[in-house]
Write a structure and sequence with these properties.
The chain is of the alpha/beta class and 725 residues long. Helices cover 47% and strands 21% of the residues. The protein is rod-shaped and about 170 Å long. It binds ligand C2E and calcium ion (2 copies).
């Protein structure tokens, strides 16, 4: 872009200079013409006066003396061409002579004559220009004489020029013959131009004097100044245009959040950097750097504060990036960099140092950053010679860097990861998941696991969550953490949600029929599903098709879903509730603005995120938050479920705070339907409810339950130790 911007003015400048030079040459030429014309005219006047004196003075000797006073060489020839008198050098003899004159832009052919008597040549006839001024061909002729002087000299000639009517004799003189120092012989005929009279020929003095030179210099200076002014004004205008253009470009490529370069610039500049000739021998690293929990920071402070922080982060990254490297703010809290690659360890160290300095960018916070690196090695041909990268889509390479960053997900700490074969494998694996998904539903490869929820005060089973598992013949046992995100991305999650709802409804119906005292089972519904207007109706129809009463099905929504379309969300929740389904908010407190959602959503159950129960807070602040959350839920008429509870003192604490249910490894891990059935049987057993159902249901069924109870009791009893998988 820059190159184009410069080429125009440069071409213009060269053209302007060429025009200026031609202008000066033309002006010089015109000036010389002018001087010549003026000088020759003046000389001719003097010659005329001398001729008048000669003719009007009877005594020719006296005339000769008077003429001598003019201090010019002259001679007088009689009608027979015989010399009468002369002053200075003399010429003689006359013959005709033809010359070709090559002059400025045209070729003139002039017939010249050689004067036998005086041994000079002169053009046959001079031409007057339109204004009747002294002939231009005189000058051409003089130029010819000048150029051809050597040849003419060889022939021993002196030259005479005939301008119309008047004969100008140019006497050739090898010493004086210069453009503006010519001996020009001016012929003055008698008054009526009659032949046969004596002819007076005077040698003109054409010399440039100081004044002429001053005029010439002044004119040239004026011309030069005018040209310079024009050129400079055009040049400054061009420069200011470039400046303005630069400003516009700057504006166009500026990131509004950080004030640095924007993403469009990064993609364009990145491509230039990677594909240019001088990059042939270099390797590069395309880096994605992501600031974690940026959204949380914005929620705690404000979006403008968050953006200020991103500005600071950009500044720090910019400092760390070399002159021939680039960086820019990408989307959200992501930054892109193209660094020169000197080795895996070096890049890793550089990024770790950068992350180190970024972590303490705000004194009140410690931030975590993750970096993903895609290496672009030098390219070589078959002979091993480095070749230019012809085409590179920076965005695609950056996506690979992002994939490397994403591979660090799970760990909440800072880190650096490289895009490598493992990630390619991972991508391949993801592709195969997508290929197998339809078949897996058809073949019922997805299993419903149930994780019971217990009342911590009574240790009774009060609910369960249905969690999907995939027993794939091709991929083996796959955990939902691996395939759910893929399905969420490709939209297949809606099929999964349907699958789970209908299977859970079918199971519940079967267990009710078997006589179990069923408890509500919650099913996860992905946020992607909430774009469908008739979601509540779909769920109702699926549950009805299985024949399960609605109170046994609960719908879990993740908190993040509450951000999409609030109105549609409230509408769906209301409809679900009107059909008799309970609705719970999953993962409460796991990052988004929970309290705000609570205000607007008529929810039944609040599930406290497992994160609340990870690690110990030394000063008991965690407990205060949990305790207040439970209180808040209660005052909003919501039941609470604590997720991910693994140890006894947490159970005791939650029981004390009035938490309604606990879903965690402390009580039970997610288990196959059959195991869960065992848990239900256990409950019936414990509460002697089995006796009630005995009358209502047939004996076979009760026996079946008893069998399961016996089997399950040994396998899945609530334990007091920390049972982590
Ligand atoms: P979630 O809905 O938050 O489910 C709770 C997750 O926490 C389950 O992981 C469960 O096994 C785990 N968990 C429960 N108690 C404990 C504990 O004490 N300690 C620990 N360390 N973990 C515990 P799971 O089954 O791997 O599911 C992961 C996520 O996958 C779920 O998180 C949910 O978001 C998604 N998911 C699972 N099944 C389904 C489904 O059927 N549909 C949809 N849309 N998403 C599902
Ligand atoms: Ca859930
Ligand atoms: Ca959860």
């Amino acid at each position: 872009m820059k190159r184009k911007r410069i080429i125009g003015p440069v071409i213009f400048f060269i053209l302007a200079m060429a025009v200026a030079v031609l202008g000066i040459i033309y002006a010089t030429d015109q000036f010389i013409d002018y001087i010549l014309y003026n000088k020759v005219s003046t000389e001719y006047e003097a010659a005329s006066v001398m001729a008048d004196i000669y003719r009007s003075t009877e005594d020719k000797d006296e005339a000769f003396i008077l003429m001598n006073r003019f201090n010019r060489d002259f001679y007088v020839v009689d009608k027979n061409g015989k010399m009468v008198c002369h002053r200075g050098e003399l010429t003689a003899d006359e013959t005709s002579y033809k010359v070709k004159i090559s002059a400025f832009r045209k070729n003139l052919e002039v017939t010249a004559y050689k004067d036998r008597e005086i041994n000079v040549i002169y053009p046959e006839k001079g031409k007057k220009d339109k204004a009747g001024e002294l002939d231009f061909s005189l000058k051409k002729f003089i130029k010819f004489v000048n150029d051809e002087s050597d040849k003419l000299e060889d022939q021993g000639l002196e030259i005479a020029v005939d301008a119309e009517g008047n004969q100008f004799f140019v006497g050739y003189d090898d010493e004086d013959f210069e453009m503006l120092n010519l001996p020009i012989w001016l012929t003055v005929e008698d008054e009526d131009g009659q032949e046969g009279e004596d002819t007076v020929v005077v040698k003109a003095l054409v010399r440039l004097n100081e004044q002429d030179i001053i005029i010439f210099v002044v004119i040239m200076a004026i011309i030069l100044v005018v040209i310079l002014v024009v050129i400079i004004s055009i040049f400054t205008r061009t420069i200011s245009n470039i400046h303005r253009q630069k400003k516009v470009t700057n504006y166009f490529f500026t990131d509004t959040v950080t004030g640095g370069r924007n993403w469009m610039w990064f993609l364009i500049r990145g491509e230039q950097l990677l594909t240019k000739r001088s990059s042939i021998k270099k390797s590069f690293a395309i880096v994605n750097l992501e600031m974690m929990n940026y959204q949380n920071y914005c929620l705690c402070h404000s979006v403008p504060e968050g953006e200020k922080l991103l500005g600071k982060v950009h500044e720090e990254i910019f400092k760390a990036v070399g002159k021939k490297e680039i960086c820019a703010h990408g989307g959200g809290s992501n930054f892109g960099m193209i660094l020169e690659y000197t080795g895996r360890e070096e890049i890793k160290q550089r990024l770790e140092e950068l992350i180190g300095s970024l972590q303490t960018i705000d004194s009140g916070h410690k931030f975590n950053f993750r970096a993903g690196v895609k290496i672009l090695e030098t390219r070589t041909d078959e002979s091993g010679k480095a070749v230019r990268r012809k085409e590179i889509v920076v965005e695609d390479e950056y996506i690979n860097a992002c994939a490397a960053t994403a591979s660090l997900s799970g760990a909440d700490e800072s880190g650096v990861a490289f895009f490598d074969d493992k990630l390619i494998e991972e991508e391949k694996w993801q592709d195969s998941v997508q290929e197998l998904q339809e078949k897996a539903v058809r073949n019922e490869e997805f299993l419903v696991y149930y994780q019971p929820k217990y009342d911590p005060r009574t240790n009774k089973l009060t609910g369960a969550e249905a969690l999907i598992r995939w027993q794939s013949p091709e991929l083996g046992f796959v955990s939902p953490g691996k395939f759910i995100p893929i399905f969420e991305k490709n939209g297949f999650i809606t099929n999964i949600d349907h699958y789970m709802i209908s299977h859970v409804a079918r199971d519940q119906k079967a267990w009710l029929d078997k006589g179990y005292k069923c408890v509500p089972v919650s099913v996860n519904v992905s946020r992607a599903h909430f774009v469908e207007n008739d979601l509540a109706e779909q769920i109702r129809d699926m549950v009805d098709a299985a024949g399960a009463p609605h109170e046994y099905i609960e719908i879990e929504l993740t908190e993040s879903a509450f951000f999409d379309d609030k109105k549609a969300m409230i509408n769906t929740i209301n409809k679900l509730k009107s059909y008799g389904f309970a609705v719970s908010m999953d993962d409460f407190g796991s990052g988004y603005s929970s309290l705000n959602s609570l205000k607007d959503m008529p929810l039944d159950v609040l599930k406290l995120d497992a994160e609340f129960f990870r690690g110990e807070s030394a000063d008991g602040r965690g407990e205060i938050v949990v305790s207040e959350a439970i209180k808040l839920a209660k005052s909003l008429n919501m039941r609470t479920v604590a997720e991910g509870v693994e140890v006894k003192n947490q159970v005791d604490f939650l029981a004390g705070e009035g938490c309604d249910m606990i879903q965690g490894y402390y009580y039970a891990k997610p288990m196959p339907a059959a195991d869960y059935e065992g848990r239900m049987a256990e409950e019936i057993h414990d509460s002697e409810a089995i006796a009630e159902t005995k009358d209502a249901k047939n004996d076979n069924k009760t026996e079946a339950i008893a069998e399961v109870v016996a089997e399950e009791e040994t396998q899945n009893k609530p334990t007091n130790d920390n049972t982590v998988e």
